User: What shape does this take?
Amino acid sequence: MKAGDIILVHSGRSILARGITYYMKLYLKSKGFDPDDFNFIPHHAGTIIDVWGELHVAEAVGRGYVVQPLLKAYSLDEWEQRVEIYEPVKSYTKQQQEDISKMAIKYSLSGVPYDYLNFIYQIGMIKFGRWFGPRGQKAENRFYCSEVTATLAEKIQPGSFPNPAATNPVDILLSGVYKI
Assistant: This one.
């Protein structure tokens, strides 16, 4: 595991995790996939970053965008059972790893809140195949998990996720930008 890798989290038990998983299954179906063909359906995403030589998880959660040590973010059991680690297909350079870490820390320190409205936008995307939410710089005032993961990737390797604001955990899984 190294800075710039991403995590996809699955099998959450909360109502929110189950709701997102339900909609991610619908999204897969809308894209022509059978959800039963997948080993897991992700409901959450985050980015691995380097903070003073130690790996941390940077992720958007209910209290906003946070950076936490690996074992504070997830227990050892969760890392083994529910967290899948993906690395960029086109490996990041050392400079890109430093840049993604600095950007994540900057977002965390700036107090970017969680984007609860995104659930409505994602449902619209699933039902109508169109993004109705904010784009570009306007979308960076609030973040949800896969959006900020895609935003960081897009800033490091342009073209990775052309519309990060509309990116959900399944989009990251299917993107071909990352590999397990």
